[in-house]
UniProtKB/TrEMBL annotation:
This protein's record includes keyword DNA-binding: no
Protein's name in the database: D(-)-3-hydroxybutyrate oligomer hydrolase
Taxonomy of the source species: Bacteria, Pseudomonadati, Pseudomonadota, Gammaproteobacteria, Lysobacterales
UniProt-listed InterPro entries: AB_hydrolase_fold, OHBut_olig_hydro_put
GO BP: any one term: butyrate metabolic process
Length: 607
């Protein structure tokens, strides 16, 4: 019996440790998380920042799946990280990433991922904490970011991850109620927490819309969740921050609790992610955030600038015609294949009394003059040719109209719908291999990756015009639908941040998707009028899509905005951790295009 006592003590100790571990996990899971927290290790040929691909692999061809019909969670994660990098950063051979600015070092560590819910929400948003093994417990740092555009959970990795992880910061992400967790009614399947496809009822899905017939097509969370997610992007960021702190408690119980008092929380984001950062700054009543850096934010100020839906629907209608003006003959994408039909837009607008003049050149000049009168600057129109050639305006307007009006996949406004692209480009059923890769490859708003945007068309010479006019009428009209849309957009407006919050806004002067005149200019001017002191860099020759800089004719004319985002975050770090004073003003870099050669640091004029 005496010999058994040490053994019994060890057994009791182990049981107590197991019980403590279970209690620790329970206590460190916030109440807004429903279901499990998925924890994965990423070392030895895998890592947090590039999934083991490194810069060369990230820039290469899409990583293949061993079994395309059944990719593993690890394969899906690797490809999701790769597609997120390629969708945000210029990784081309002339772009200078990894040589002039930025880096992709190996960062081993752990990931904690879960579905989080806002009160009253119909669908969750994903939250993810990346915790490097080299997390600096002496200078506790948590970077929080929302995905750009409508991308999935890794949509901010090229900004927040690339800057924060090598410094020893933990990085928390949210997809802010968007992402590529597409639901396919053809087989009643969606996306599970690990990224694999699962059928309704098998497990909790990223997005599970109400049942409907198989011919309903594809449901997209951003457009069809019924939650108007944009109105809650700031709350998504706040939850991601609290999730990150909670997972740090779980990872380092002896150092818990992690709080805003002992852990500096830095918020950043690009595009819609930048807008989410500014929304969160206005909601941070508890003083969680130590600083905010927002790049090219989709931000809407009450009574200032213009709402995205307003200028997107205007651009969708008038840019194809305006870009026919001879002044744009040398503009990349303005004379690309497929643009030959743009003069038909001029004719269609003229036939409906929206443009005068009988000649295409006169109509194009009038469309251009209309845009200029409504605040569109010529450099912005020139870069907007890319968004127009890629049909982004129609894609954005159709999805956002559905989100604002809280419509499902069967009753999107103006007759639009999503379906898999079948034979001859007609609606059909998805190829199983394509469907299996959606979570990794999808950008969050179709068309793309085998999903088409259908409807909103007629048999006119310009078949898309009728749907676009319908979308524009939702903004300009006075119907019940129009009033509901305006009310939903009003719910997305930003609030004032606290006066003491270090805040830096960066925007490309040539941004052709979210023009600074409609967004950041208005926001920064509003802050100044309200007694705030934001820093603002309006970078010459920067536009919206760094990833476009690798395209022929485009990179020669523009500079990457991401480089300046890193520089602003560096300055914020120096303020928070090296006691450098926060500047009242920082001169805007005198950036200039690289021309036909490779990018050099001198052309960026970085501080």
């Amino acid at each position: 019996m005496t010999r058994l006592r040490p053994l019994l003590f060890v057994i009791a100790l182990l049981a107590g440790t197991a019980a403590a571990s279970a209690e620790e996990k329970r206590m460190s899971t916030p109440d807004f998380v429903r279901g499990p927290v998925r924890v994965t290790e990423h070392r030895q040929g895998d890592d947090l920042l590039s999934a083991g691909l490194g810069l060369t692999g990230l820039a290469g061809l899409p990583v293949p799946f061993f079994d395309p019909l059944h990719p593993t969670p690890a394969e899906l994660r690797r490809r999701a990280i790769q597609s997120s990098w390629k969708g945000i950063a210029d990784l081309g051979p002339l772009g200078g990433y990894g040589r002039v600015y930025g880096a992709v070092p190996n960062v081993p560590g752990r990931e904690y991922q879960a579905f989080a819910w806002l009160p009253g929400a119909r669908s969750p948003h994903r939250v993810l904490l990346q915790l490097p093994d080299a997390f600096d417990t002496r200078r506790r740092c948590l970077v929080v970011a929302a995905s750009s555009g409508s991308r999935g959970i890794y949509g901010a990795i090229a900004l927040a991850g690339a800057w924060g992880l090598p410094r020893g910061c933990a990085v928390a992400y949210t997809d802010k109620g968007t992402g590529a967790g597409y639901f396919d009614y053809a087989d009643d399947s969606g996306v599970a927490l690990d990224g694999t496809r699962a059928h309704r009822g098998e497990t909790t899905l990223e997005f599970e819309p109400p049942p409907a017939p198989r011919e309903t097509g594809i449901a997209v969370k951003h457009a069809h969740s019924g939650d108007n997610p944009e109105a809650d992007w700031g709350r998504h960021v706040l939850q991601a921050a609290r999730f990150g702190l909670s997972m740090l408690d779980r990872a380092y119980p002896a150092l818990a609790p992690f709080t805003a008092q002992n852990t500096r929380i830095i918020v950043t984001g690009i595009s819609n992610g930048g807008g989410a950062a500014l929304q969160a700054a206005g909601l941070d009543d508890d003083g969680l955030f130590a600083g905010v850096v927002a790049l090219e934010p989709n931000v809407h100020v009450p009574g200032q600038g213009r709402a995205l839906y307003d200028y997107a629907t205007e651009a969708a209608l008038y840019l194809p015609c305006a870009l026919g003006d001879a002044r744009f003959d040398d503009v990349p994408f303005a004379r690309a294949p497929g643009t030959q039909a743009w003069p038909l837009r001029c004719a269609g607008l003229h036939a409906r009394g929206l443009l005068e003049g009988s000649l295409p050149a006169t109509q194009a000049a009038q469309a251009y003059a209309r845009l200029r009168a409504h605040g569109w600057e010529e450099p912005v129109i020139r870069t907007a040719a890319a968004s127009t050639a890629f049909d982004l305006w129609r894609a954005i307007a159709a999805a956002y109209a559905s989100a604002y009006l809280r419509r499902g996949p069967r009753d999107m406004p103006c007759g639009f719908r999503y379906a898999a692209v079948g034979a001859g480009g007609l609606p059909g059923e998805a190829d199983p291999a394509t469907r299996a890769s959606w979570w990794a490859d999808g950008s969050g708003i179709p068309p793309g990756n085998g999903i088409g945007l259908y409807g909103g068309a007629d048999f006119d010479m310009d078949p898309m015009l009728s749907g676009l006019l319908c979308l524009r009428a939702l903004w300009e009209g006075d119907t019940a639908q129009s009033r509901a849309l305006h009310e939903a957009i009003a719910a997305t407006t930003v609030r004032l941040p606290r006066p003491s919050l270090p805040l830096w806004v960066l925007h490309g002067a040539d941004d052709g998707l979210l023009p600074a005149a409609f967004t950041s200019d208005a926001y920064v001017a509003w802050l100044h009028r309200e007694g705030r002191a934001p820093l603002y860099w309006k970078i010459p020759h920067a536009q919206h899509f760094d990833a476009f800089l690798s395209l022929p004719g485009f990179g020669e004319r523009h500079v990457p905005l991401l480089a300046y985002g890193y520089a602003a975050l560096d300055r914020l770090w120096a303020h928070l951790y090296e006691s450098r004073p926060w500047p009242a003003e920082v001169p805007v870099p005198a950036a200039r295009p690289r021309g036909a050669g490779a990018l050099e640091r001198a052309t960026l004029d970085l501080p």
